[in-house]
Design a protein that fits this description.
- This protein is mostly helical.
- The protein has helices at 2-50, 55-73, 78-85.
Length: 86
């Protein structure tokens, strides 16, 4: 009886394994994207502090980067920013 149960459950276990690996890959991709955005924000602040970019350039780029970060985290804070641009 246990052999039959194992045979019947094998496809489900295989599918769960594949889904788990896909989830791990997605999480790694999201973490890499978040690190890239944070690095861009750090470089942006350095550019502002050194005078390489203007306050207006900083604000526009920062708003874009923070919007990407919000979308990455699934937060719905972008509507107010988009309304302010219109």
């Amino acid at each position: 009886m246990f052999i039959i149960d194992d045979l019947l459950a094998a496809p489900a276990r295989g599918l769960m394994f594949v889904l788990k690996k896909i989830d791990e890959a997605v999480q790694q991709e999201l973490e890499a994207e978040e690190r890239a955005i944070m690095a861009d924000l750090t470089a942006l602040h350095r550019g502002l502090d050194s005078g390489a970019i203007t306050e207006e350039q900083f604000d526009a780029r920062e708003q874009d980067l923070l919007g990407r970060l919000d979308r990455l985290h699934g937060e719905d804070g972008g509507d107010a920013r988009n309304d302010a641009r219109s």
